[in-house]
Amino acid sequence: MKKLVIFGFDGTLADTAPGILYCFNTTAVAMGYEPVEHSALYGVIGTPLEYGFKTLFNMSDDEIEYAVKNYSKLYSQKGKEMFTVYDGIYDALRELKKSGFKLAIATQKHRMFTTDMLENYDAADVFDAVCATDVGTNLTKSHLLLQACEQTGVSVEESVLVGDGTIEANGAEEIGMDFLAVLYGWGFRTKEETEKYKCSGIVAAPAEIVPRVLAL
């Protein structure tokens, strides 16, 4: 039985797409680029901002440095408030906690934004560890997962990651951690998309998180 359940943030715990799209497009338009559609965020949400600006707008390194600073300012002012927690997530977290599991977050979102969003929705005290990136650092998902294990005192083998995309899947596989693939977020959309990754189970809705974890 597992002892630690680690969650991605964007697309797993919360739908953060509205705020992310607003900040990407507002920043890019001010720099002379055309805005992107909502669907363009697939595969970008939850990744480092540098990757997002390069992928969505093909910016140069100098432009990306400026864009990241402007995005961060916009996100701190407005973007971080433009999100909703997926229905059923609170119930799943409470049930896991009641069952004795330790809970953690591993996200490449900046730490300041992550903690602010958790506090705004009274969820900060649910997690035993919140592992995120700091300004000027871009830790990989596998590094963040190892941090979560270290901070909670639980081994990789006794842990499972719940996430919605390829970055989570690859990060878990790199260190030999079990992975539950979420289909309700912004990464994987169908079971077929997960088949080339090493998944221990599929989660089609938040209500399925607890039974999938208990089955491991």
UniProtKB/TrEMBL annotation:
One of its GO terms (molecular function) is 5'-nucleotidase activity. Gene3D superfamilies: HAD superfamily/HAD-like (3.40.50.1000), Putative phosphatase, domain 2 (1.10.150.240). GO terms for cellular component: cytosol. It comes from the Bacteria. One of its GO terms (biological process) is DNA repair. InterPro entries: HAD-like_hydrolase_sf, HAD-like_sf, HAD_2, HAD_sf, PGP-like_dom2. It holds the Pfam family HAD_2. Keywords: Hydrolase. Its EC number is 3.1.3.5. PANTHER family: PHOSPHOGLYCOLATE PHOSPHATASE (PTHR43434). This is 5'-nucleotidase.
